[in-house]
Design brief:
CATH topology: TolA/TonB C-terminal domain
Distance between the termini: 46 Å
Number of strands: 9
Strand content: 25-35%
Number of domains: 1
CATH superfamily: TonB
Strand order of the largest sheet: 2-1-9-4-5
Largest sheet: 5 strands, mixed
Length: 130
C-alpha cells in the first residue's frame, strides 16, 4: 500500500492520501485499497528541534516507511528534508503503530510515505522579520 501522510508539527494533523498499491509480504501483488492512514492507531508527534527553531528553519521531511506484518514501522528511509529536522521526524515516526493490514485475511507488509511539515508559529516569523 502506498499513501502519503502530512503531519504539520505545529498546527495539528492534516492527512493527504495519494496513490495506493499493496504488496503481499511473500510476493508482488498490488491492489487498490483504502488509505493506510485509516489504520494508524498510534502517532508520536515530532518535537521541533531547538537548534532548527533558533535558526528559523522550516520545511518538509519526507520519509519512506515499511510497515511490518504486526503494524510496527520496520524501516525508514529519508527521501528529503533538512538535516536539522530529519532526526526528529525519523525518531517520532519510528514509534508509530498501525493496525495490521490484511489481504485475503493474511497480514501484509505495507510501504507508505509520511511527510512531516515543520512550521514555525506566525508570531515567531513576524518577530524574525522585524
Amino acid at each position: 500500500m502506498r499513501a502519503s501522510l502530512i503531519i504539520p508539527v505545529i498546527w495539528g494533523l492534516l492527512f493527504s492520501p495519494t496513490a495506493f498499491g499493496q504488496k503481499e509480504s511473500g510476493g508482488g501483488v498490488r491492489i487498490s485499497c483504502p488509505p493506510v492512514r485509516q489504520k494508524l492507531i498510534k502517532i508520536v508527534r515530532p518535537i521541533y528541534p531547538a537548534e532548527a527553531k533558533r535558526a528559523r528553519i522550516e520545511g518538509t521531511v519526507s520519509l519512506k516507511c515499511l510497515i511490518g506484518l504486526d503494524g510496527s514501522v520496520e524501516k525508514i528511509e529519508v527521501e528529503k528534508g533538512h538535516e536539522l529536522l530529519t532526526p526528529a521526524a525519523t525518531k517520532a515516526v519510528s514509534q508509530w503503530k498501525y493496525k495490521p493490514l490484511k489481504l485475503n485475511g493474511k497480514a501484509v507488509q505495507t510501504e507508505t510515505t509520511v511527510n512531516i511539515i515543520f512550521q514555525l508559529p506566525k508570531e515567531q516569523k513576524k518577530a524574525a522579520a522585524k
